């Protein structure tokens, strides 16, 4: 990935406005990113604070997924900095990245399940990876399955799930380790309206429990619903820059 | 690897193991390849040991002995007397006509050809290191004209060297089987890692450290290498054991080790293969992991 041109500084400080904690969870400082000669993000500066609900919107191809990739350390900025809980991404070694990801639950567009494992095992995987699996955690897994209404699908394999079930299972897996931040890329894509609202309500519930939520979506109805249910901070990504939209 | 880590490696991490999908045919092929290579390694090892034994035996048989050929039977007693008086000659024994005939029979197509021919008289001589060979030859020339002193270690000098080359060839073959085995296991591991790129990416996304991801693959392939090699070693040893020793024309005759140490050398092949698979897969796994953030 080449360094893309950085032009026009758009500084966006998302802090304090809602009276919640001022701890910076993820912080972009003049971050630029591009694929080859094509710049995707140009000079992004913003702070995602603890306990807030962020909705990132923008047209298809605007770079929402790329922005989330930077937020999950899947990619590093070509220039500028991205900090996680105060640590610069570039300074975090591979083991550090793994440990950091345990504090950040992620729901990918394609859910990224291990198709040979049951839904229950997929949901339990973060616990197993963190070496925290055990008989005592079985009840937690049952609770999570109940929370996303998948108790009766626990032993199914991921390919046997519907779109909505996959999204809910991915959500359950993302919160298995009680992460500080939950990042979801188009969590309601390809599912019906009722299921989309059900997933949104789960995300709102998590936010009320103090989790920082960042979702990327181009679903206007979902954005409206989110604004109605929670004091969501709207981020609009266009032309490689992020602007705070009116709440 | 510490003792505790080694034990953990052998007993495995069920969660890490389960995270990697079963590899089916690739896994079976790895075991098969390791077994075939181990079988060849056993045969190469036995060949190397046999070559070593042969070189040693031939060298021991040839060093310190000689034959004195006397053309006329009447000279035999004089030649024997000269030899017995010479310092450095430990023993002299005249071969009887039957022994000489048997000896020569090995060098002619039809032993019947020897009928009616005059047989030379042969004296078998045992030397000690202090023998002055040039002085002995000069004395024989003077006192028993026509007597010829044949040194075995000179005449047969090429025989132990040939056995040594056989040994070197077998050791080379053994090394090649290990290298081929390492290549096969590395390729199988790389294929498996490439097939499971999405799985590795997902595990990393869920917070798996490199060691967790590598462990599942490394353990799987190390154990496959070990069990495949154990199977091939058992087959190879069985093959060596059942071939009749000394059977005329038997390809493997003479390969069977004469000592327990010879047999037990082959037991090192499975753990060595397992170790090699461990190192090869570990290297391949970490190379793949560095491409996934």
Describe the structure.
The complex is a heterodimer of chains A (247) and B (293). Chain A is α/β, with parallel strands linked by helices. In chain A, strands 7-8-9-4-10-11 form a six-stranded mixed sheet, sandwiched between helices. Chain A has a five-stranded mixed sheet with strand order 1-3-2-5-6, covered by helices on one side. In chain A, helix 3 packs parallel to helix 5 and helix 6 packs parallel to helix 7. The longest helix of chain A has 16 residues. The N terminus of chain A is likely disordered. With 293 residues, chain B is of the alpha+beta class. Chain B folds into two domains: 189 residues, no CATH class; 75 residues, no CATH class. In chain B, 67% of the residues lie in helices and 8% in strands. Chain B has a four-stranded antiparallel sheet. Chain B is rod-shaped, with a radius of gyration of 31 Å. The two termini of chain B are 26 Å apart. About 2% of the residues of chain B have low confidence.
How do you describe this structure in short?
Chain A is built from 7 helices and 11 strands.
């Amino acid at each position: 990935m080449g360094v893309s041109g950085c032009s026009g500084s758009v500084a966006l400080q998302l802090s304090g406005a809602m009276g919640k904690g001022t701890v910076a969870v993820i912080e972009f400082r003049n971050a630029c990113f591009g694929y080859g000669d094509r710049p995707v993000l140009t000079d992004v500066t913003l702070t995602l604070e603890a306990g807030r609900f962020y909705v990132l919107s923008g047209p298809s191809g605007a770079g929402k997924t790329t922005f989330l990739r930077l937020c999950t350390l899947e990619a590093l900025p070509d220039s500028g900095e991205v900090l996680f809980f105060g640590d610069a991404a570039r300074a975090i070694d591979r083991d550090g990245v793994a440990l950091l990801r345990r504090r950040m639950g992620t729901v990918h567009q394609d859910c990224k399940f291990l198709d040979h494992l049951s839904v229950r095992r997929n949901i339990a995987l973060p616990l197993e990876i963190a070496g925290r699996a055990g008989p005592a955690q079985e009840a937690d897994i049952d609770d999570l399955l109940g929370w996303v209404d998948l108790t009766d699908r626990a032993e199914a394999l991921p390919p046997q799930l519907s779109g909505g079930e996959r999204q809910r299972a991915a959500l359950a897996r993302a919160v298995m380790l009680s992460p500080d931040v939950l990042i979801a890329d188009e969590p309601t894509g390809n599912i019906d309206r009722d299921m989309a609202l059900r997933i949104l309500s789960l995300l709102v519930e998590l936010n009320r429990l103090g989790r920082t939520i960042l979702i990327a979506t181009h679903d206007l109805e979902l954005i409206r619903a989110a604004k109605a249910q929670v004091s969501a901070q709207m981020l609009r990504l266009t032309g490689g820059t992020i602007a705070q939209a009116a709440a | 690897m510490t003792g505790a880590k080694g034990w953990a490696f052998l007993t495995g991490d069920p969660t890490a193991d389960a995270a990697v999908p079963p590899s089916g045919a690739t896994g079976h092929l790895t075991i098969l390849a390791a077994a075939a290579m181990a079988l060849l390694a056993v045969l190469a090892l036995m060949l190397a040991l046999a070559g070593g034994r042969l070189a040693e035996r031939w060298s021991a048989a040839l060093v310190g002995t000689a034959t004195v050929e006397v053309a006329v039977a009447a000279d035999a007693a004089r030649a024997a007397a000269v030899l017995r008086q010479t310092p450095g000659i430990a023993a002299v024994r005249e071969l009887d006509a039957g022994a000489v005939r048997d000896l020569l029979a090995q060098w002619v197509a039809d032993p019947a050809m020897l009928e009616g021919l005059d047989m030379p008289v042969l004296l078998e001589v045992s030397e000690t290191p202090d023998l002055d060979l040039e002085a002995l030859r000069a004395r024989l020339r003077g006192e028993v004209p026509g007597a010829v002193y044949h040194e075995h270690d000179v005449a047969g000098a090429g025989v132990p060297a040939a056995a040594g080359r056989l040994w070197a060839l077998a050791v080379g073959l053994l090394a090649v089987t290990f290298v081929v085995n390492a290549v096969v296991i590395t390729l199988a591991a790389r294929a498996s890692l490439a097939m499971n790129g999405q799985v590795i990416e997902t595990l990393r996304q869920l917070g798996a450290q490199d060691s967790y991801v590598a462990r599942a693959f490394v353990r799987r392939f190390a154990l496959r290498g070990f069990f495949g090699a154990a199977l091939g070693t058992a087959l190879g040893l069985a093959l060596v054991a059942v071939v009749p020793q000394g059977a005329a024309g038997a390809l493997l005759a003479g390969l069977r080790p004469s000592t327990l140490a010879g047999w037990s050398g082959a037991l090192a092949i499975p753990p060595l293969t397992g170790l090699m698979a461990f190192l090869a897969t570990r290297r391949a796994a970490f190379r793949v992991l560095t491409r996934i953030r």
